[in-house]
Amino acid sequence: MAVKMDELERRIDKLEYHQQLLMRMMKHTEMQLYYLIIEKNLSRKETEDLLNLCENLNKEVEKQKAEGFVTFNPLLIDLKKKLIPSISPEELIEACLTQGVYVALMEVLKKSL
């Protein structure tokens, strides 16, 4: 049975309203990376790309620390170059630190800002 267009519109409106309420709730939690993903309206692919970028940079910072590096400006430059334009490095760093993900990476990037 086909759902009528006006019924779909009502359902979409309700979902959007519920999403707005959930966003208000999430703003006050520690899950700030997820909040940022939703707030910036990232697709699943964009989210996967973002998390892969963070994972790769996190591995690189650990490698560089083991090799005795003390400055990590090139990693910040790489992040800025590859980061989704709708998200600033500062937003990403604060969201990850609040949520407790990629902490080692985000701490060195924060110092490089």
How is the secondary structure organized here?
Layout: H1 5-26, H2 32-39, H3 44-66, H4 73-82, H5 89-99, H6 103-112
How far apart are the termini?
56 Å
CATH first level: Mainly Alpha
What's the gyration radius in Å?
18 Å
Mean pLDDT: 94
CATH superfamily: YhaI-like
* Individual helix count: 6
Structural class by SSE content: mainly alpha
Helix content: over 70%
Word description of this protein:
This protein is mostly helical and 113 residues long. The protein has one domain (31-112): Hypothetical protein YhaI fold (Orthogonal Bundle). The chain is 74% helix and 0% strand. It is built from 6 helices and no strands. It has helices at 5-26, 32-39, 44-66, 73-82, 89-99, 103-112. Helix 2 (32-39) packs antiparallel against helix 5, helix 3 packs across helix 6 and helix 5 (89-99) runs antiparallel to helix 6. The chain is elongated and about 65 Å long. It starts with a helix and ends with a helix. The model has no long low-confidence stretch (mean pLDDT 94).
